[in-house]
Automatic annotation (TrEMBL):
It comes from the Bacteria. It comes from Mangrovimonas yunxiaonensis. Residues 6-70 form the DUF2007 domain. The lineage of its organism: Bacteria, Pseudomonadati, Bacteroidota, Flavobacteriia, Flavobacteriales. Pfam families: DUF2007 (PF09413). This is DUF2007 domain-containing protein.
Amino acid sequence: MDSTYKKIYTGNFIVVQLIVDKLEAIDINPILKDESESGRLAGFMASIPGLQDIYVSEDELEAALPIVESVVSELEANNAN
């Protein structure tokens, strides 16, 4: 079975980890991509260090997007206070 992955979020490690934890709690196994770490290992410097991308299978997209929206909304509400 050929599966297609879609990027659902790009952000700092802490927010990414919150989203990943919630996705894994509902049996979604995201793939993380860290350009800065890949670049560092290859001897290059990323333009914005510390940003990571979260990808999920297209099949899991519908269940994953509300999780991302929930975490981001919660963080924005907390930062507004």
